[in-house]
Amino acid sequence: MSRAVLLLAAALFVVLLAAVPAALLLDLPYLLFLFQQLAILATAAVGLNLVLGYAGLPAFGHAAFVGIGSYTVGILATELPGTLFTSAWVQLPLAAALAGLVAALIGAVSLRTRGVAFLMITLAFGQMLYFAAVALERYGGDDGMILVAPSRLGEQNLSRGVLSYTISVAVLAVALYVSFRLMRSPFGTVLRGAAANERRMQAVGVAVHRYRIGAFAASGALCGIAGVLLANHTAFISPATLAWTRSVELAVMVLLGGAGTLFGPLFGAAAFVLLEEVLSGVTEHWRIVFGPLLLLVVLAAPGGIAGLLGRQSND
Amino acid sequence: MTLFLEQALNGLQLGVLLFLLSAGLTLVFGIMGIVNLAHGSLYMLGAYFAVTFTGWTGSFLLGALAALLATVIVGIVLERVAIRGLYDRPHLEQVLGTFGLILFFNEGARLVFGPAGLSLAPPAWLSGQVTLLPGVVYPSYRLAVLVAGIAAAGGMYWLVARTRAGMLLRAAAANRNMAEALGVNSRLLFLAVFALGAGLSGLAGILAAPLLTVRVGMGEEVLLLAFVVVVIGGIGSIRGALVAALLIGVLDTLGRAYLPGALRFAFAGPVADAVGPALSSMLIYFAMAVVLVVRPRGLFPTSARTDVAA
Amino acid sequence: MRAVDKAAVLAEPLLVARGLTKRYGGLVANAGIDFDLRPREVHAVIGPNGGGKTTLLGQLMGEIEPDAGTIALTGADITALAVPERVLRGLARSYQVTSVFPGFTVLENVAFGLRARRRTTSRFWRAARTGGELGEAAAAILRRVGLSGRSGVDAAVLSHGEQRQLEIAIALSTTPKVLLLDEPLAGLGVDEGRRMVDLIASIAGPIAIVLVEHDMDAVFALADRITVLVDGAVIASGAPDAIRADPLMRSAYLGEDL
Q1: B203 CA to chain A: closest CA distance, Å?
Q2: Domain range for B220
Q3: DSSP state letter for C12
Q4: C-alpha to C-alpha distance for C211 and C199, rounded to whole angstroms
């Protein structure tokens, strides 16, 4: 990993932490709101990077796993308010397990195909879950629902404020650590090796398929956790969270930052969120600039931000 | 029974539109190895152009013709300016780049045509109903869409199966290297294929314009359906796209019409009411999953570049 | 030529294929091939390009599904087994076009097979270290193929000759009983080719080898038995001297090679 990559990652964390006193002193609650969104999206992108980057699989349905996390919070808050099930300590592992399980199932079917077909199938499975969410009439259907009971954490909750913000940043840090450990482990080296040369990996006796399904599960679980935080952050849950364009946006973050690098998803999420913020401040039609910008990044800097900062590395 | 016939015709009509959309998509995948998310944008542009040009000329036919031409021109410019740089790039990067194009086209459409949805009345001579069988009436315009779509599909079939250009196209879709060995000018072929795909997609948008509200985002909704069609049919296979498009069109339409009722027959009312709409929306994705479990390379597999890892 | 001891010749074959058939559309790549490999033997498969040699290796390895026929390894039917399961039962192969893990060091390239054999690849929390016992085993394999000095280098930057050596090392990392070599001399110069022949001779014996190779000098230097494939069928099979003397062979294939 190049020095510049480490420095930028450290700088981003310093900014994320310094935002707390800055927001309190200067009375800028919006700063925390924006940065918390950044941290949550970065967590989901770290999850997606396990599959998209390290395993080299073009998966484009991960918004669905974020959505599973969000709906877990929303449904439990509606059905079982005031019980144990609105505790973050219950919701976070439950959402992670649910999203991980669904991701493993979708992965198992999708991995029967390769290349473009795989890409389209993951998109389509994501869309299937989107329609499932639309069909949840009891939970607002197309319109979604307001989160009536935010996830409790002791006496407090994850709705807004410094505690919620700090936890989102901490979760991001943990996600990055998990990604770091996972990808240096034998499991992770097999995933990366299979991306480099799948046929040979089979020929040295590794059943690649199982590892990839495992990667899907881990990646889905991280996205599910991000979904819990996102539902609390926006206090609103709707099928829009699961739209396929959201899946592509997550992938865009990973690629923009540098797929298959540890900090790439963080850089990409930061660039995406901050660019959107700055450009939309200039014009409401900011996408007409942002879109071609993405195309230019692909054509000019295929390694993303991490690639620009230094050698694209595996470690 | 009459309702069933009507629904079946609606299904076929959706299938025909899906075929127009996915024929271009499958050729572009098969021949150029490009994942083009902006394919749906061309559908949207076709519809917007149809509304605009019909307004200017006062004639649906003239407007449609001009819209078709305009979409093809946009397609050619798009290939030259953007798509060309994405050949032989990993699929991931193609998705990123063409997603950027979606944002551009959507915002562009919002700027040029305004944020509100537009509607287009079918031409007066197609605004009535026809009696197909005693007691079975069907909107003339929908029937015309069906006929026009079948004609376009027939034209495609003729082009692909009977002409020399079509032969090269099929060779290239099945095996690009072989086509290049045969001396096909791939730059020109790619441009032609992309323009053809753009035209077909635009035509689908033009035909669909009087049936729905023309608005930003309509391309993304239909793109996923076209993906399902392409995957089920087998990437690069025109015949597969035709069969799968009709299958999906009919399955989706009949599923939405009858599945909730069938469920109500089997389960208690509230359960059926809750599950019915969900199941019918998800039906085609289930169908896709089933097809893939049985035949991972689709109904009509080609040797197109599907097994090239990303 | 190495002597094959009598006991081994009399022993049950390690690898037995019966009636292997593979069609691609109208083209018959393998038409009912019977093939076997005895313990300690080097069995060369030769024949013109398009004769079906690589298809045969692919089917033996499990990468290509046969349309008909059976394959048995050490007496057990493996026809239905996937590639990794065959590897764990002692089958390994090298590839005609170099197939290594770019972006990983030479040592790491060899470690994949060692870990798969020890079934430690699924550990997902401990760092994948290549030290200790695993590192020693990997270093021993690299010494055998002559890549000791290059263990820390990215496989992608090795010379072609070194990549061919690594190709063999990766195959050895799974501790195979049977090794399928697909044109190990492809693209090598005269000296490199000679070293490769020495390397194969040094690993042969404990490991039985199926050798697909175009270089006839190498084939006659290494093979205990030769099978000739033409148009997907076995047209001759026997001791090297018999093959060399067979007039049909001289006209059908060997031609100017002799």
Answers
A1: 23
A2: 2-309
A3: P
A4: 13
CB < 8 Å from A in window 89-148 of B: 89-108, 110-111
> What CA–CA distance (Å, rounded) separates A246 from A261?
21
d(CA A177, CA A313): 17
Q: Rounded to an integer, what distance in angstroms lies between the CA atom of residue B100 and that of residue B122?
A: 33
Q: Which residues of C205-231 are buried (b: 16+ CB within 10 A; e: fewer)?
A: eebbbbbbbbbbebbbbbbbbbbbbbe
Residue A203 to residue C121, Cβ atoms within 8 A:
no
Q: The complex's ipTM?
A: 0.88
Residues 10-69 of B with CB under 8 A from A: 29, 33, 35, 37
Which tokens hold the place of A84?
A: 């144990």
Q: Does A201 lie at the interface with B, CB-CB under 8 angstroms?
A: no
Least confident stretch, A262-276, B207-221, B256-270: B256-270
- A131 vs B102: CB contact, 8 Å cut-off? no
- Give the count of Cβ contacts less than 8 A between chain A and C: 100
Q: What are phi and psi of A184, to 5 degrees?
A: -90, -10
Beta-carbon separation of A201 and C112 below 8 A: yes
Would you call C157 an interface residue with chain A, using a CB distance cutoff of 8 Å?
A: no
Torsion angles phi and psi, residue C28, rounded to 5: -95, 110
pLDDT at B172 over 90: no
- For residue C124, the chain A residues in CB contact (below 8 A) are 182, 185-188, 214
CA atoms of B213 and B120, how far apart (whole Å): 8
pLDDT at B5 over 50: yes
- Cα distances from C52 to residues A4, C210, C229, C251, in angstroms, run 52, 14, 7, 19
Question: Mean pLDDT in chain C?
Answer: 87
pLDDT of residue B310: 28
Which residues of chain A make contact with C128, given a CB cutoff of 8 A?
184-186, 188-189
* Digit-coded pLDDT (tens) for A34-44: 999 999 999 99
Contact criterion met (CB < 8 Å) for C124 and A185 = yes
- pLDDT tens profile A171-184: 999 999 999 999 99
* CATH number, residue B171: 1.10.3470
Helices (H), A53-160: 63-79, 88-110, 115-134
Q: Which domains does chain A have, with CATH numbers?
A: 3-308 (1.10.3470)
CB atoms within 10 A of CB C31: 17
Q: Which chains touch C (3 or more CB pairs under 8 A)?
A: A
Cβ(B143)–Cβ(B130) under 8 Å?
A: yes
Residues 6+ apart with CB under 8 A from A30: none
Is 70 exceeded by the pLDDT of residue B271? no
Q: Tally the domains of chain B.
A: 1
What's the rounded Cα separation, in Å, for the pair C85 and A225?
36
Give yes or no for residue C3 having a pLDDT over 70.
no
Q: How many helices (H) and strands (E) does chain C have?
A: 10, 10
- B chain contacts of residue A195, beta-carbon cutoff 8 Å: 309
CB-CB neighbors (< 8 A) of C84 in chain A: 202, 205-208
Select from C70, C14, C78, C5 the least CA-distant residue to C43: C14
| Cβ atoms of B273 and B260 closer than 8 Å | yes
- C-alpha span between C71 and C234 (Å, rounded): 16
pLDDT at B274: 66
Helix axes of B186-208 and B2-27: crossing angle, nearest 10 degrees: 160
Q: Between chains, do C127 and A185 touch, taking CB under 8 Å as contact?
A: yes
